[in-house]
């Protein structure tokens, strides 16, 4: 029963991740505006995903536990390019590309570097969620931020946590599991905040 549930969990996660950023991309493109979308949040999210992906590859984790991350990273890169385009900052593309490429290379130079980066990864990813929350609190307007994208992020964290528990490697994967649970809580918080400000705007 457990293997079947695990397969179902992985397939549902991959399916959601394949389209997870599409609602956000559609919202930004339709409005031709990035109002409410935090650039800092997106950059931190990308950094966290890259560290997490590199860590799993470095230590030879099963492919199915991280296959969705290249898909999400690609969508985040597209979203970043669109945000830079609408904000008139396309000249920063080379800087960001060079920074992330250098970081990806340096992570695997020494074991202690990748271990330290992974220890900090949860803080980096949490900071990305908090950056989006801060943006929402400051503007008190959800703008073009997609509640659907954030709710799907919460779903993938919940399923990934469930999948890790089913593999029965709870202690081995405790660091990763803790990250998923923290990200789940923060994703739900961001989603609730978006819906709160959207409801207030309609009421006004």
């Amino acid at each position: 029963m457990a293997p079947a549930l695990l397969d179902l969990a992985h397939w549902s996660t991959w399916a959601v991740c394949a389209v997870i950023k599409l609602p956000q991309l559609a919202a930004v493109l339709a409005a031709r505006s990035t109002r409410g979308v935090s650039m800092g949040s997106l950059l931190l999210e990308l950094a966290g995903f890259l560290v997490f992906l590199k860590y799993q590859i470095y230590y030879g984790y099963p492919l199915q536990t991280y296959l969705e991350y290249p898909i999400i990273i690609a969508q985040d890169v597209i979203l970043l390019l669109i945000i830079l385009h609408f904000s008139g900052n396309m000249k920063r593309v080379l800087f960001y590309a060079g920074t992330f490429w250098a970081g990806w290379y340096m992570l695997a130079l020494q074991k202690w570097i990748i271990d330290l980066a992974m220890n900090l990864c949860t803080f980096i990813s949490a900071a990305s969620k908090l950056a989006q929350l801060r943006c929402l609190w400051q503007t008190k307007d959800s703008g073009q931020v997609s509640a659907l994208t954030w709710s799907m992020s919460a779903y993938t964290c919940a399923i990934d946590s469930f999948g890790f528990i089913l593999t029965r490697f709870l202690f081995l994967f405790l660091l990763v599991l803790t990250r998923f649970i923290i990200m789940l809580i923060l994703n739900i918080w961001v989603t609730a905040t978006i819906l709160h400000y959207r409801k207030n705007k309609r009421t006004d």
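DSSP finds eight helices and no strands in the chain. The two ends are 50 Å apart (CA to CA).
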